[in-house]
Design goal:
By secondary structure, the protein is α+β, with helices and mostly antiparallel strands. It has a domain of about 80 residues: Helix Hairpins (Orthogonal Bundle). The chain is built from 21 helices and 21 strands. Strands 1, 8, 9, 13, 16, 19, 20 and 21 form an eight-stranded mixed sheet that branches. Strands 10-11-3-14-15 form a five-stranded antiparallel sheet, with no helix packed on it. A four-stranded mixed sheet has the order 4-6-7-5. Helix 4 packs parallel to helix 21 and helix 15 crosses helix 16. The longest helix is centred in the last third of the chain and has 35 residues. It is elongated and about 155 Å long.
Length: about 700
């Protein structure tokens, strides 16, 4: 009270003289918060106070109904104090109910607060131009259109990021190179002694078939005819199985009685094929070919595989004679020996030899060029070959990694007799990104196909293993050209009568990818390839062939009558030391994505990451206010339903809700503190009392 009095007294010089007590009291109330004090009124308006005191003295009459001045002043002060306490209570209550987290009372209030305080450019226009509806509509359309365009750009960026693009990195390296593995096959399916008798009988049946179909009399050796009569039981047995799959021909324009497995070829001659049926012989088809040569070779190969499958082990066919095939071997001007190669047998390509495999110390090229690689002189004459199975002469070569098997059908090529073939190599490595960037595999363990080969994972290894596993599952036996799975046996029509029918049906599904092998088998993430370039020249030349063949006959017992067609030379070397590495790197990283998003956000709104946080806060507040309003509506509906008792209701109070009366809703808004002007009743009462006293006087 003293502080307020001194405050007003300090400002009394600036205050005007009031004409009435009521105006003076209002001025004092505005100064000190409504405290009524006659001393201050005397200071502010002394003339009014003196005029009232003079009129009081002139009356001279006893004041019967007048209230004493001290009592009136006391009541005036008590009223002012009561009014001041009444105004302080809501302020304390407001401070008491202020919570840690508060939300706006309506969507309109939330939106106005956001637009007035956000750092996003253009949002303030939605509030400042609210008195002009045209501007408000214009800025609203522009604001949301900008948002739409920005998020459209965001969608393009996210789509590009989740497509996981890669960048190709090309590196050229120069270093000493490890020489690859080289596999060389004779192209001579040898008449092995273990199957010699059955092969002779198969040749006799084939000769008779060619005579019946083409009127071609094929020469037969005396040993073949001797085998025919000395092994009649075996002959009759083989003849019985061959007759189940006869080789036939018929005109193309005639309607086929039996379904064909291959599509027809538009030619005027007849088509050749052999019959294949299931176990009950109620479903058959012709495996046909447009060429009679291909049909005879495939039919002969089919029976040849059945003969080989009866052998208990491939070791029985191991009749390798390295010296009779390889006349000379040299690497980096050093002679090769048996420790530098391994041998295996191929049903079609005969004896095969792999140089520089994992079983020996690996060769390293010190220098590029033809004199620093592998040089071979090989025999290409075929005296003991099977003419119905192999129709070419020479040798077959394939270059591959040490940890990969040699698939001679896929990557091999033939060298010609009497020719020197020089093959230059260029090494190339490919490193792919795994995971989401490419569908590659590190080691094949995540591929749902069992690896049947004793080698590292490659795509061809997986594909062939997949076919073999499906073959065992569908046909009950394994194909002879591929590794044997555990617990299975090779197909033989003496045990599996209809395996040929099942195999060719399965092969058609395999090529059409019905089996899914090409989808299951993925590329390895790390690959090493060798790009080859071949050059050919006549070897030996006409002037040097005499002394060359003489030297070969002295050193290697070379006694071939047809000199030029019986020998060939092969050179394999690196073209250069440099090798190329193709690597992949992510083209769109997380850093790039954030940078692009920030560029788009700044372009359309000129704001930062904190503006995004403000937008997220707006969405959060919107959700919370929606939940609170929904809860209020449900609560009000529940209270209304509980207060309205339906007719015929029960009186059991245990099933009635306790209603505590209307309660004040929860305050969840942040309101501005506005001081309410105090009431002037106390001043007016004091003034009326004073006027009454003056009237009585």
């Amino acid at each position: 009270m003293l502080r307020n009095n001194s405050l007003c007294m300090g400002q009394r010089r600036d205050l005007p003289v009031h004409k009435s007590l009521h105006e003076a009291a209002r001025h004092v109330q505005a100064c000190i918060g409504g405290v009524c004090c006659w001393e201050l009124l005397r200071l502010l308006s002394p003339e009014l106070i003196l005029r009232r005191e003079d009129s009081h003295l002139k009356g001279g009459a006893a004041k019967v109904e007048k209230m004493p001045q001290e009592e009136s002043m006391r009541q005036c002060k008590q009223g002012a104090q009561h009014q001041q306490k009444h105004e302080e209570v809501p302020e304390k209550a407001e401070e008491k109910h202020e919570g840690l987290i508060e939300f706006h009372n309506s969507y309109r209030e939330l939106f106005q607060f956001f637009c007035s305080n956000t750092t996003i450019h253009g949002a303030i226009r939605l509030v400042c131009s609210k008195k002009n509806k045209m501007k408000t509509a214009f800025w609203s359309v522009l604001f949301f259109l900008t948002f739409g365009l920005m998020y459209w750009q965001f969608g393009i960026l996210y789509r590009e990021y989740f497509s996981f693009p890669v960048s190709l990195n090309l590196n050229l390296n120069s270093d000493r190179l490890t020489f690859p593995a080289v596999t060389l096959c004779t192209l001579n399916p040898y008449r092995y002694s273990a199957v010699q008798k059955e092969l002779d009988e198969l040749d006799r049946i084939t000769h008779q078939t060619l005579m019946d179909m083409y009127n071609y009399n094929m020469s037969v050796t005396q040993s073949d005819w001797a085998a025919q009569y000395t092994h009649k039981r075996s002959s009759r047995s083989l003849f019985h199985y061959v007759q189940r799959h006869p080789l036939r021909r018929h005109k193309r324009d005639n309607p086929a009685i039996v379904e064909e497995n291959n599509p027809p070829v538009d030619k005027s001659d007849w088509k050749i094929g052999f019959l294949l049926c299931n176990e009950k012989s109620d479903d058959c088809f012709h495996q046909t070919y447009s060429s009679g040569v291909d049909a005879v070779r495939e039919w002969y190969s089919f029976h040849y595989i059945n003969i080989l499958a009866r052998m208990p082990s491939t070791k029985d066919l191991d009749e390798s004679n390295f010296e009779s095939f390889i006349y000379a071997c040299r690497f980096n001007d050093v002679t090769c020996d048996k420790a530098n190669y391994t041998h295996f047998h191929h049903p079609i390509y005969g004896n095969c030899y792999t140089f520089n495999d994992d079983n020996s110390s690996l060769w390293t090229s010190s220098l590029p060029g033809i004199n620093n690689g592998l040089s071979l002189v090989v025999r290409t004459e075929q005296n003991d070959f099977i003419p119905l199975l192999s129709t070419v002469t020479g040798a077959r070569v394939m270059v591959h990694n040490q940890n990969e098997p040699a698939f001679m059908d896929d990557g091999g090529f033939n060298i010609r007799p009497g020719i020197e073939t020089s093959i230059s190599m260029r090494k190339e490595m490919t490193l792919r990104l795994g995971g989401s960037y490419s569908d590659c595999t590190e080691d094949g363990k995540d591929v749902p196909v069992q690896n049947l080969y004793l080698s590292h994972y490659t795509e061809q290894v997986c594909i062939r293993s997949c076919f073999q596993l499906n073959m065992v599952k569908r046909c009950g036996c394994a194909y002879y050209f591929y590794p044997l799975p555990s617990g299975a046996e090779y197909c033989d029509y003496t045990k599996h009568i209809a395996w040929g029918y099942c195999y060719y049906k399965l092969q058609a599904e395999f090529k059409a990818d019905i089996l899914g092998c090409f989808r299951k088998c993925r590329k390895p993430c790390k690959m090493t390839e060798y790009h080859l370039s071949a050059g050919y020249s006549r070897w030996p030349s006409a002037l040097s062939e005499d002394w060359v063949f003489h030297m070969l006959s002295q050193q290697n017992k070379y006694n071939i009558t047809s000199k030029r067609n019986g020998v060939a030379k092969l050179n394999i070397f690196f073209e250069e030391w440099k090798y190329k590495t193709n690597g992949e790197s992510p083209a769109f990283t997380v850093v790039t994505l954030l940078s692009q998003l920030g560029n788009q956000w700044s372009l359309w709104f000129g704001s930062s990451v904190l503006s995004v946080a403000e937008l997220a806060e707006l969405i959060l507040d919107f959700v919370v206010i929606t939940c609170i309003l929904s809860f209020r509506w449900l609560r009000a509906w529940h209270e209304t339903a509980s207060t309205m008792s339906p007719p015929g209701g029960h009186d059991n109070t245990d099933f009635q809700s306790e209603v505590s009366g209307p309660s004040t809703p929860h305050r969840f808004t942040v309101e501005a503190v506005v001081t309410t002007l105090p009431s002037y009743n106390s001043l007016e009462q004091c003034e009326s009392n004073r006027d009454a006293e003056m009237g009585l006087e």
